[in-house]
Amino acid sequence: MTSKKNNPCADGTCRVPTSQRPQTISTDANNGDIGALVTVVIDDQEVKVPMGTTILEAARSIGVKIPTLCYHEDLCIAGVCRICLVEVEGQRTLQASCAYPITQPITVKTHTAKVRQARRHILDLMLSEHYGECYACFRNNNCELQSLAKEYGVDYFRFGHPEKSRHKIDRSSYSVVRDMDKCIQCRRCVRTCIDLQEVGVLEALGRGDKTEIATYLDKPLGDVVCINCGQCINRCPTGALRANDPTDEVWAAIDDPTKHVVMQTAPSPRAGICEEFGMEAGTPMTWEMNTALRRCGFDKVFDTNFTADLTIIEEGTELIIRLYKTLVEGDTSMPLPQFTSCSPGWVKYIEHFYPERLGHVSSAKSPQQMFGAMIKTWYAQINNIDPADIVSVALMPCSAKKFECNRPEMCDSGYKDIDYGLTTRELAQMIREAGIHLPDMPKSDFDDPFGTATGSGVIFGATGGVMEAALRTVIELITGKKVEDFYEHADIIPVRGFEGCRYVELQIPEEVGPVPDLIKHLVPNWDWVKGATLKVGVAHGTANAKKVMEDIKAGGKFSECHFIEFMACPGGCLGGGGQPIPTTPEIRAARARAIYAEDAAYGKAGKPRKSHENPAVLRVYEEFLKEGPCGHLSHKLLHTSYTPRGKFIG
Amino acid sequence: MLTTQQEKLMGELKAIVEKHGTDRSALIPILQDVQKCYHTISDFAMQVIADMLGIHPVEVNSVVTFYAFLNEKYHGKFVIRLCRTISCEMAGKAAVARQLENDLGIKFGETTDDGRFTLEWANCIGMCDQGPAMLVNDQVFTRVTPEKVHDILQMCEQSFGPHTLQKAEEHVL
């Protein structure tokens, strides 16, 4: 019953009004204790479950499989698809097991003739409106509707099958493509968008057989307040929602001998791509993937962690400048707390919903865009390549990165900094197309000059990771001592975990070190932070981000923070909208373990685990960005500005 | 001072929302009031209401598209809804429908050019024993005949004008 723990409905944090939540048990029919155990017989198996458990959860706990479509562990219960119908003894009609809380001893049959026929009819009805051919669909072999049709032996279309498309495919967004012909109206995307992420782009419009899942006034997705997080894609049971796929363009670039195609890979896809090759979630594939990418034809394979480290230096320096300006000089032009800017979904969220707070967002670009700018300037320069011939591809766990690389301001190198953003799923597709079975690949390292990364860069993929990486660096810069002196193995455990919003206080010791050379020109000494308390926050998922933002507005504890990490996706990047489908809390936890294991491996191998120790980063500041972090050139290439968009849909 | 149309509408919407409160459950009464006052729930109004209630515009849109009595499209001052279900059909709905279309010069689902009348179909309004039945705004007319249609429309037109405007909006007929 792990799902119950994570479900926002169950823990009361969901915004859905009580009237729309599934019934929870507040009074007991038999006047017994609330939460008492009750005996249920499911398919002749007896099981004791706490009162209020749904039939579906009880059945799953004893290994009885009930098919589901609209049910999802991360989401509120809707009970709309009816595929999970079961027969409850004494009830005239069939009951939806996902939305039936057990209040008294009952006997349930999950596969009687009546149930089987009803399920088959429901499937047939869904298929009678589901236009499209399975083999021309990106969810082929990974589609919940398709596998149910197989399970229930659908061999003809009892109620017909559409022969013509009724909807235009909405390709207006850089990130998400909507093909409503394939929609079965399970409303998972609606609940994801409204309840899980609180963005509110998708809803059911109309009534009865005219109901459609649509945006506000059925506008194109590119025109509404979509933040491109792609969480709806990860939860769609069919192929109705998918990411905008640039693999054809990437192949074309690879096949063009005049083009120098470079790839950068983010930490999360490495932890997730194994799932695409049928392996257990949480098997890291970093080194195998490098070989596979080279065999696919990419000229160079770089590690995004390099710019993750660069981001930490730039963003950390900006934080120190902000703190110094606000606390010492009394200048309020750069307000506190500083917000992270690594998550493009979060950036678009704040642009839409809290444009008045954009001053808080760090001007540092995300690691992806920093890398793009570095590749087409410094890398081109030292390798004597015309930047016009470089095609820069980024492998990201994210659909919002596709939007980010198409932002008009992301051309600071004089060219489009990143040409294409690929998701984990799309890369897996390319690798398969090249006839490569990823797990069989020999291991190989990243290419220089960006090859060296640190453990700090790796943990960017998990929620709290950016904060941990930043703290490791900030603590060492200020105290002049090793983080290991304060935290065992430099693991700053308080910022890790999956709670929605975390608030952590860190005491800065009375003894401070000298100001390191790298930022000597920015602050004269550390006397002003002696003995101070550094307050930081972490939020993942935009619903939690909203809670933190509202708390700041109301003057709560988060308004006193100095630095807050925001990630648009639940779990951080590892739960991103470009990661393999499906996603559940268990899968995300497994990916997080893989990421933290890779960080720990850096420590065991004696490699640097802190961003400011990365030799490649130090080399960049020596040879290229000579004015240091937040200097003139780094402002031009590594920092950006934001657009207040507002939430009014024009 | 000059106020734009939108500012004016915003002020009026604010008054309506204050009357019903900002709870989510107040959404339908608010929308009903807006529909009554403006004969439409405009794009702008939906977004303003959503903002005031702290919900998403698309949720308001969803409610508006769900209910037949809430409309995104402009509806006339008098919305005539003729029942099209079986009892009224058998009691002679077709002749009444023809008469309505002829008298108003519009088809079902349309609004007259002067914005006075809208003609719509309704599903059962519970007057099956007294068919054909129809609604003019909130008022029910039963055993309607083509001759009666003429009288009803004339009554509507008489109640409409500068001097009777207030009354017309509040009590219909």
Plain-language structure description:
The complex is a heterodimer of chains A (650) and B (173). Chain A is of the alpha/beta class. Chain A has helices spanning 2-6, 55-61, 113-127, 144-151, 188-196, 231-235, 247-255, 267-272, 286-296, 305-329, 344-353, 367-383, 400-404, 424-433, 455-458, 465-479, 542-553, 585-604, 615-623, 632-638, and strands spanning 37-42, 45-50, 85-88, 95-96, 106-109, 176-178, 203-205, 212-214, 241-243, 260-265, 300-303, 338-339, 390-396, 420-423, 501-507, 533-540, 563-567. Among the domains of chain A are: 2-111, Ubiquitin-like (UB roll) (Roll), CATH 3.10.20.30; 124-243, Alpha-Beta Plaits (2-Layer Sandwich); 247-306 and 368-440, Rossmann fold (3-Layer(aba) Sandwich). Chain A has 20 helices and 17 strands. In chain A, the strands form five sheets. Chain A has a five-stranded mixed β-sheet, with helices on both faces. A four-stranded parallel β-sheet of chain A has the order 11-10-13-14, with helices on both faces. In chain A, strands 12-17-16-15 form a four-stranded mixed β-sheet, covered by helices on one side. The radius of gyration of chain A is 26 Å and the shape is globular. Chain B is an alpha+beta fold and 173 residues long. Chain B folds into two domains: 5-66; 78-171, 3-Layer(aba) Sandwich (Glutaredoxin), CATH 3.40.30. Chain B is elongated and about 50 Å long. Chain B has eight helices and four strands. Classes of the chains: A alpha/beta (650), B alpha+beta (173). Chains A and B meet through strand 7 of A and helix 3 and helix 4 of B.
Helical run tally of chain B: 8
* Structure classification of chain B: alpha+beta
Mean pLDDT of chain A: 90
Largest sheet, strands/sense/barrel of chain A: 5 strands, mixed
| Cα radius of gyration of chain B in angstroms | 18 Å
Reading side by side through the largest sheet of chain A, how are the strands ordered? 2-1-5-3-4
Instruction: Please report which band the strand proportion of chain B falls in: under 5%, 5-15%, 15-25%, 25-35%, 35-45% or over 45%.
Output: 5-15%
Number of helices of chain A: 20
Helix content of chain A: 25-40%
Strand percentage of chain A, roughly?
5-15%
H/E order of the elements of chain B?
Answer: HHHHEHHEEEHH
SS-based class of chain A: alpha/beta
CATH architecture classification of the domain at 247-306 and 368-440 in chain A: 3-Layer(aba) Sandwich
Summed over residues and divided by their number, the pLDDT of chain B gives a mean of 88
Bulk shape of chain A:
globular
CATH homologous superfamily title of the largest domain in chain B: Glutaredoxin
